[in-house]
Amino acid sequence: MTRIVSGSAGGRTLKVPPTGTRPTSDRVREAMFSRLEHLRAVDGAHVLDLYAGSGALGLEAASRGALAVTLVDSARPAVDVCRANAATLGLRGVVAVADRAERFVRRPVDPPWDLVFLDPPYELADDDVAEVLDALVAAAALAPSAVVVVERAARSPEPRWPAGLERGERRAYGDTVVWFADATHAAGSPPQPAP
């Protein structure tokens, strides 16, 4: 059973798409959000949840005070579940979009994202994850103090961080590894080339 860990919807359960998703465990989400709240990255944030599945990460952020949350998944059943979960929880400022992550991040966005989650299927190729990270930076879609969180299998290598994202902490939870990265350029300005 997947549930919202804390905030205004804390303890409420979430529907999960019948196939094709691997929801982040409550334990991992609790630890992840503890770190993000320490960084003051959630309250009032504009949040992007890519490969949203049930929407658990973005909805957790909304429950904890995020101002606006966009849930993106390429699978229509997942988007339908995201919309149903947001409606059931009564969380405002949440929208769900059916699109591929690598295409969605190339769209212009205003205001830029303060917090971005990438929780792709573990079998998604590392090059595909790198493509999404590159596009986020190239589109100048990140706020100056944005935090990007990438969740991968423990056996996966570290993501390739483009210029404009600086690796922060790595946290391991069983078979799951969570990488935190910080934006190193202001939205609307091009990232500086790597030295």
Automatic annotation (TrEMBL):
<dbReference type="InterPro" id="IPR029063">
    <property type="entry name" value="SAM-dependent_MTases_sf"/>
</dbReference>
<keyword id="KW-0489">Methyltransferase</keyword>
<dbReference type="InterPro" id="IPR004398">
    <property type="entry name" value="RNA_MeTrfase_RsmD"/>
</dbReference>
<dbReference type="Pfam" id="PF03602">
    <property type="entry name" value="Cons_hypoth95"/>
</dbReference>
<feature type="region of interest" description="Disordered">
    <location>
        <begin position="1"/>
        <end position="25"/>
    </location>
</feature>
<keyword id="KW-0808">Transferase</keyword>
<protein>
    <submittedName>
        <fullName>16S rRNA (Guanine(966)-N(2))-methyltransferase RsmD</fullName>
        <ecNumber>2.1.1.171</ecNumber>
    </submittedName>
</protein>
<dbReference type="GO" id="GO:0052913">
    <property type="term" value="F:16S rRNA (guanine(966)-N(2))-methyltransferase activity"/>
</dbReference>
